[in-house]
Amino acid sequence: MGATCAAGGRAQRVERERSVETGRVVVVMGVSGTGKTTVGELLAADLGVPYAEADAFHSPANVAKMASGTPLDDEDRWPWLDAIGAWAAERGGRGGVVSCSALKRVYRDRLRAAAPGLVFVHLHGTREVISARQSAREGHFMPSSLIDSQFATLEALEADEVGVLVDVAPGPESVAREAAAALRKL
Ligand SMILES: Nc1ncnc2c1ncn2[C@@H]1O[C@H](COP(=O)(O)OP(=O)(O)OP(=O)(O)O)[C@@H](O)[C@H]1O
Ligand SMILES: O=C(O)[C@H](O)[C@@H](O)[C@H](O)[C@H](O)CO
């Protein structure tokens, strides 16, 4: 009887810890081709929360602009960021993982304003690694020619931003494991 109660208490504690952990909304950020979709899906499965794909929030005009080889500007990105922020706000307290390049600090500020408590996983890789992966990828609208503008626009997480930096050199499962472990230590 006592043992059953103790086991029940442990189960409740584990459940509570898990819900605290998964109640956070995680934004997987970084330049195009860094693995946001691949790693984000694995991370969401590991945390047991839904995954949302940033590209699904783009307007057709934004997609057409990128596909034609022109980088998006701030005005193009605000409505897209607001749509992602709305998804994150809706998931607040229940948890979720969403990909979003979130290249500039002001973009992350916008997301945090919509959904306070967001945490970021910055997937970081060298230009060579990312460029090779992006070029090998098939069936995606994003042209490799935009890689320079992506790196030029990227502003790394600052000291006061809650998040972790993860190297994408290893395979996707390792990167997702590393991200999950780093998030647990936040
Ligand atoms: N850690 C990894 N190791 C090896 N290949 C990877 C890794 N992560 C992603 N890839 C591969 O690199 C390519 C780009 O990954 P993915 O589409 O997930 O990037 P992304 O950041 O979501 O890109 P975008 O922002 O352009 O949508 C894919 O072909 C994917 O299979
Ligand atoms: O901020 C941006 O420049 C864009 O959002 C891109 O990053 C794309 O969404 C994506 O990376 C391509 O799939």
UniProtKB/TrEMBL annotation:
Organism: Streptomyces triticagri
One example of a Gene Ontology biological process annotation: D-gluconate metabolic process
Protein name per its UniProtKB record: Gluconokinase
Taxonomic superkingdom: Bacteria
Record family assignment: Belongs to the gluconokinase GntK/GntV family.
Enzyme Commission (EC) number: 2.7.1.12
Gene Ontology cellular-component terms listed: cytoplasm
CDD domains (alphabetical): GntK (cd02021)
